[in-house]
Amino acid sequence: MTHTHLDPRAAALMVLLCTIWGLQQVAIKLATPDMAPVLQSAIRSIGAVGLVWLWARHRGIDLRLNDGTLRPGLLAGVLFAGEFALLYWALLYTSASRGVIFLYTAPFIVSLAVVWRLPSEHMRPMQWAGLALAFAGVMALFGEGLLKPAGTTWIGDMMMLGAAVLWAGTTLTIKFSRLASAAPEKTLLYQLAVSAVVLSAVALALGETRVGAITPTLLASLGFQIVVVAALSYAAWFWLIRHYPATRLSAFSFLTPVMGVLAGVVFLDEPLTPPILVAMTLVGVGIWLANRRPPIAASR
């Protein structure tokens, strides 16, 4: 069943997912002193492949490759791998608070592409205004990074923007291919399996294979990334994409930067600067506007 709006169940699930994704950057940062970021990403995909495959087998999901999903599945996997290679690497240069806001420029790309391809998922002027406000917040934050003399923050910011483009490409590949009718677990397996190979190769090629002490923090971070983020949250996200409008989901996902900023401040003692506060405010208002239902006309 496909819904035209987000019902309470979908909204509650999106709040939970946004909280999990907001914590993801913090988990990566906490583990970085003990393990190279790209290696973290590769291990995450490898571990999650096993969990998702076992779950899919338990549920009796058809995992055959001759159903028209192989080609888009491989494409989605490559895009997914590129996204997370950039995301993990970017956190060497920028903070988790900033990075999560830049990553969530992806909904702009998704919304524009979906409206162009699917006129039935049109957006009203108020929704466009909401997306514009959120975009203004992101740009204000980017401007702050550019104005810092001799800093490298902007490098991480640009990497996060690149990750956002690849994330949008993954979402659109799923939405407009045979993957749209495939089981969420199968879609996720394509991405995890391909990214496990690609990210491992990237880590070796870049010499990103550093492993320090095996600390409780490292193990907890990897466990969170593998089980909660890569296995559970992405399966739920792909289920939502199949059953709810991509424009509504993408706009609502702007809540993640707010969660990410708060997590960075609480767990990493990152500064809560005025531009970050402005960006959070604009993003929050943008979510509200983009998800407002049209007023019901009064009966005569």
UniProtKB/TrEMBL annotation:
Record flagged with keyword Glycoprotein: no
Compartments, record wording: Membrane
UniProt superkingdom: Bacteria
GO CC, alphabetical: membrane
Transmembrane feature ranges: 35-56, 68-90, 96-116, 128-147, 153-176, 188-206, 218-240, 249-268, 274-291
Residue ranges constituting the EamA domain according to the UniProt record: 11-141, 155-291
Keywords, alphabetical: Membrane, Transmembrane, Transmembrane helix
UniProt cross-references to Pfam families, sorted A to Z: EamA (PF00892)
UniProt cross-references to SUPFAM superfamilies, sorted A to Z: Multidrug resistance efflux transporter EmrE
Membrane topology: Multi-pass membrane protein
Statement: the UniProt record of this protein carries the keyword Transmembrane helix: yes
Family membership noted in the UniProt record: Belongs to the EamA transporter family.
PANTHER family: EAMA DOMAIN-CONTAINING PROTEIN, INNER MEMBRANE TRANSPORTER
Protein name: DMT family transporter
Organism: Denitromonas halophila
